[in-house]
Amino acid sequence: MTEPREGGGKDIRQWADGILAGNRRAIARAISCFESGDPRGVKLLKSLYPHTGSAFLVGVTGAPGAGKSTLVNRLALHLRKAGLTVGVLAVDPTSPFTGGALLGDRVRMGRHALDSGVFIRSMGTRGHLGGLARATREAARVLDAAGFDTIFIETVGVGQSEIEIMHMADSVVLVLTPGSGDAVQVFKAGIMETADLFVVNKADREGADKLVRDIEEMLHLAKGEGGWLPPVIRTEGKTGRGTEDLWSGLKKHRTFMREHGLWEDRRRSHLRREVQTIIEERLQRLLLDRMDTSAFRSDLELVHSRGSSPHRMARKWLSDLIGGKGE
After folding, report:
1. 3-state secondary structure (DSSP) of residue 298
2. 52-260 — its CATH code?
3. pLDDT tens digit string along 108-151?
4. Contacting residues for 264 by C-beta, under 8 A, at least 6 apart
5. pTM, whole model, 2 decimals?
6. The dihedral sign for the CA sequence 63, 65, 67, 69
7. Residue ranges of the domains in the chain?
8. What is the pLDDT of residues 166-209, one digit of tens each?
9. Which residues contact 293 (CB under 8 A, 6 or more apart)?
10. What is the four-CA torsion angle of 118, 130, 250, 235, rounded to 10 degrees?
């Protein structure tokens, strides 16, 4: 398939048709398009969006070194044996030299490299906070439209800023390891409320039993969404132990959400936040454009000389951006 060069309607439709047909080259170029901020991405997404919404989006977060990648690879193998297709978006720190993902696709592909039922893409954060790349949501929609049954979104790490994944995924898995002190940080940061399932990975290590008990004690003090009590699952990424239990837990969470009317509510909440973010970003760009004008500088000088106030100036310029009364 040839990538459209001019972005005409016919070219975009052909590009979208390639993605819908599962053309890997078309999928890869679409994700690159969103990563680079190519304006064709908006038109492409318009064609793809009606075909999205079927994939199961699973967020996997945890501290660096917790074994997230190994665990996701194990899950991918398990799902492939069950006949399901898998997409993986692995968000990595950005290389200061190339601007791309620091770990890269080839390190992660492994035995999946020749499997047409698995698509793995590393994405650099490019300075974007929150443990996700700016184009992660659009990349997930591309894979969704391409027909992948389950899409795993692996974040950079865990911390207060990592809560962003809960505003994108249908289910969130938090991976912890014995002896790392992760649990204490998780409890302090309030991340308990963001996870739907807890995984104690490297469960063969000393301290695994204590970590499981600590998590379970904390969970009984917090109420899950709609009464859901997140399970604590032991896994060993290197051997694959617990992989089946983890997938079973994910399916149970999906079923619980659907049976209690929470599935669509969560997705509506995600869309609300996404639209809000898009509006905020566009308003910010409009404001930045206007701040480089003589009129803005003149008003700023008026504030500086105490002829006006910062709040009054802000209301005036907000009115200019969105209409309404400046006062």
Report:
1. helix
2. 3.40.50.300
3. 445 666 788 999 998 876 444 444 667 899 999 999 999 999 99
4. none
5. 0.85
6. positive
7. 1-49, 52-260, 269-322
8. 899 999 999 999 986 656 666 655 667 788 999 999 999 999 99
9. none
10. 80
